[in-house]
Automatic annotation (TrEMBL):
Coiled-coil residue windows: none
UniProt xrefs under Gene3D superfamilies: 3.40.50.2020
Lineage start: Bacteria, Pseudomonadati, Pseudomonadota, Alphaproteobacteria, Rhodospirillales
Domain named Orotate phosphoribosyltransferase-like: residues: 33-223
Keywords: Plasmid
Highest taxon of source: Bacteria
Matches recorded under CDD domains: PRTases_typeI (cd06223)
Protein name, entry field: Phosphoribosyltransferase
Signal peptide start and end residues: none
Organism: Azospirillum ramasamyi
TRSP domain segment(s): 267-369
Length: 383
């Protein structure tokens, strides 16, 4: 239920209370950028649901690309290098790489490295861990880049760019920056990049005081929020933390966890997919694997198809407000935990492509059958 709405302010009644936001500066309208929903999480029962991210809601790939480019254009091309861009798992993996790729193409710099945090253990040198205290899955891992040259670049980093879909307290940025700082003795600058920034001026000042280097904030919208909890019983959060086993046998290619200078080319399995003009296609990423599916969606859109991008997630959200429909199924990483897709109905699209970085043995058969989908595997395919 909407309580009130105008160009800058919005208030909504959620399952656990009332959320009000005040937009103070924006490049694009509030309701173009995000909606709102209730999380099945007693630590934070509300959610800013991005309309340009391609995660919880289906988004046209051109809209996602526009958001990447707008944020990339806000990064100063003269920031001291080398620069490391870190995307936050799982929600901002695609956003982080999209910002990195857009900025790389705009700035023509070759000293930019993208890497993303992950929830999955690998038999690979670990640089640091940090906690996202309010999350449904709190622990993040950050691995050493695979290429020795990139290991040196990471260690020589002078500017750290941290990318997340939204910021409300800034605590995750503080935790991640200190985790990285231990491996970056030359660090001078930090830039926190988000689609929507709800921290407000006072919180910005507090966060700057806690950061280990000079810090700036970049977003498409800045504002503040207030949440008034109700006396409703707190939601029960499912266990979505995973079993902690090593996933090397599943994650055989580096799509960003071990550092990339530029995006990985699409494999033949994806390049072989053709689309008809006007065909309604949903391209689904799985978990932390979203940027290559986004690339595939852009390719199909260029063929004239009406394409949307979305991704499965371990984030538990209630139906209602801007979430219309919940489909639950098991994850594709052998954790045996529930995953979800939101606001998708069987028969809504002419074609659904579920994209996997994991082997064919991990295909989520109930999801594929329900949506009449085609699995597309990127892991061991030729490029």
């Amino acid at each position: 239920m909407t309580i009130m709405q105008n160009d800058a302010d919005f208030a909504v009644r959620l399952a656990g209370g009332d959320l009000a936001v005040d937009a103070e500066r924006w490049d694009l309208p509030l309701r173009f950028l995000c909606g709102f929903a209730s999380r099945r999480n007693p630590k934070r029962p509300f959610l800013f649901v991005s309309r340009v991210l391609g995660r919880h809601l289906p988004v046209h790939p051109q809209v996602m690309r526009m958001a990447h480019r707008r944020l990339g254009a806000k990064l100063d091309s003269s920031l001291p290098g080398p620069v490391v861009v870190v995307g936050m798992a799982e929600t901002a993996v695609c956003l982080g790489q999209g910002v990195h790729e857009s900025w790389r193409l705009m700035s023509h710099r070759d000293d930019l490295l993208f890497i993303h945090s992950t929830r999955y253990k690998l038999r690979h040198p670990l640089l640091s861990t940090f906690e996202e205290s309010h999350s449904h899955a709190t622990s993040h891992l950050l691995y050493q880049p695979a290429d020795p040259i990139d290991v040196e670049l990471f260690a020589d980093c002078r500017t750290l760019v941290l990318v997340d879909d939204e910021a409300s307290t800034g605590a995750t940025f503080v935790a991640l920056s200190h985790a990285c700082r231990t491996q970056m003795p030359k660090l001078e600058r930090i830039v926190c990049v988000t689609i929507t920034d709800w921290m407000g001026v006072r919180k910005h000042a507090e966060i700057r005081a806690e950061m280990p280097a000079r810090t700036d904030f970049v977003s498409l919208l800045e504002g503040s929020y207030r949440f008034l909890p109700s006396d409703a019983p707190p939601p029960v959060m499912p266990d979505v933390t995973g079993n902690g086993s090593c996933k090397d046998h599943l994650l055989t290619r580096n799509f960003g966890r071990l550092g990339l200078r530029k995006s990985v080319p699409l494999p033949e399995s994806a390049l072989a997919i053709r689309a008809k003009v006007g065909e309604r296609i949903l391209v689904l990423g799985t978990g932390e694997f979203v940027y290559p599916p986004f690339q595939l969606a852009r390719r199909l859109s260029a063929m004239g198809a009406d394409v949307r991008v979305q991704a499965t997630t371990r984030s538990p959200i209630m139906e209602g407000n801007d979430i219309h429909g919940v489909i639950e199924f098991e994850d594709a990483y052998e954790d045996g935990i529930p995953n979800f897709i939101y606001s998708v109905r069987p028969g809504q699209y002419d074609r659904v492509l579920v994209c996997y970085e994991t082997p064919p043995s991990t295909v989520q058969t109930p999801l594929v059958k329900l949506l009449g989908a085609e699995p597309v595997f990127f892991s061991d395919a030729k490029v």
